[in-house]
Amino acid sequence: MRIAETFRSLQGEGPSAGSPATFVRLQGCGVGCSWCDSKYTWDPDKGREAPLPAILDELFTHGPTDLLVITGGEPLEVRGFEELLEAACRSWTRVEVETSGVSSPPASVGNLFWNWSPKLPRVTPRWDDTWGAAAAWMAEPRTIAKIVVGEGDEAEAIRLARTLPRDRVWLMPEAMTEGDLKARSVELAEVCKREGWRLSPRLHLWLWGVRRGV
After folding, report:
1. Which residues pair with 71 in a beta bridge?
2. Taking a C-beta distance cutoff of 8 angstroms, is the pair 123, 29 a contact?
3. Where do the structural domains in the chain lie, given as residue ranges?
4. CA–CA distance, 133 with 58 (Å, rounded to integer)
5. Are 213 and 183 in contact (CB under 8 A)?
6. What letter does residue 180 receive in the DSSP assignment?
7. pLDDT in tens, 26-69
8. What is the mean pLDDT of residues 130-150?
9. Which residues lie below 8 Å from residue 34, measured CB to CB, with a gap of 6+?
């Protein structure tokens, strides 16, 4: 399979925010979000190719962590993802996958958690692909819906999020700078208070800015 990078950091988003984690970022994504901060992962021919045992060995060199985060790119579109997932669930206490959900969840395991991030209409022409399997994602008990909300997206975010179980919805601000992150977070906090949803931080952006390996 092809990967962009591996590293050790803190999980910056969702339910495990602040937890030490090992990350593997897979190479290849055809979703094409307009605000993507990792466009270097889009081209499936870039990054580097490695066999699964070598990838696992590399992940172990980052030191012991209870949490492994598999991100991208779009993991569901990467050849070899399911084999990586199976091996990861045997080796880590908790495995989280960051995905736009362009297909149904391929596995259900007790220590496997899905951070499903369906896209809003302004973000990508494939937004409806990421919502197409919403029922299947919500049927998986260890899935949360983490919806990235940019300027001008609030009405659509509310409309679509209201179709999901209230206790599974997290809103997360789209931002590239600390100032924008603070402003958007304050706005979304009011929406979350009103709707009974949760607000996801972006700790890595706040701590280190937009750069690789964090």
Report:
1. 25
2. no
3. 2-123+133-208
4. 33
5. no
6. H
7. 999 999 999 999 999 999 999 999 999 999 999 999 999 999 99
8. 98
9. 122, 123, 124
